[in-house]
């Protein structure tokens, strides 16, 4: 067996670019370098000489066939000239929400298990290649998850306006009724306390709409159900008009 050019150090758990070292095998290559088992961010397990990974930035693609190749790794460290663009700033905010614990939004993202497709985390170019440029129609866009229960992954991201994002939100933590857009309202009229269940939504122009159902007339349960049905019907009509409320909206 040839003497290794590289020390047989324990690299278990160490990350090298898109690869994490799992365990050393008993095999060596012709140069005497130990073969290690690695796990690629794409989910593929492969075997490679540790020296190729540690010292040569060999990359996983040549072993596992993943698209993010050694060339992609090299390009990820190349200046892309977009650091001042809206797309780059949106990508930066996305990373902060997922991975920066002192970020205010992390509690609703990273802390809840919302993460990023691993190759995008350190390579804006790969993210931009997938999502493309923001629309330039004068509206404000941010990166939105199509399935808001999922992470920022290929096929689950898009540029969305604030209106589109509002139609794709999950149930807010301060919601007391358990149904988005359905709230209890109390009015005092001539020393008489009147309670209502109210359905609220916004039309295509963003104007607030509201329907109220009297608890005194219908009873609490029936008024609540009527408000829920009124909002569901309004959302169905809005979707027929092109509003595109997500199936996960309010859930």
Task: Kindly describe this structure.
The chain has 251 residues and is an alpha+beta fold. Helices cover 29% and strands 24% of the residues. The protein has a four-stranded antiparallel beta sheet. A three-stranded antiparallel beta sheet has the order 7-8-9. A two-stranded antiparallel sheet has the order 5-6. Strand 8 and strand 9 (208-214) form a beta hairpin. The protein starts with 14 loop residues before the first strand and ends in an 11-residue tail after the last helix.
What is the helix tally? 9
Q: Helix-strand pattern, N to C?
A: EEEEHHHHHHEEHEEEHH
Helix-strand category = alpha+beta
Q: Low-confidence segments, ≥5 residues, pLDDT <50?
A: 1-6, 66-79
Specify the overall morphology.
elongated
Instruction: Give me the Rg, rounded.
Output: 26 Å
State which percent range the strand residues make up: 15-25%
Q: Reading side by side through the largest sheet, how are the strands ordered?
A: 1-2-3-4
Number of strands: 9
> Residue share in helices?
25-40%
Q: What is the residue-mean pLDDT, rounded to a whole number?
A: 79
Task: Give the biggest sheet.
Answer: 4 strands, antiparallel
Q: Terminal Cα separation, in Å? A: 61 Å
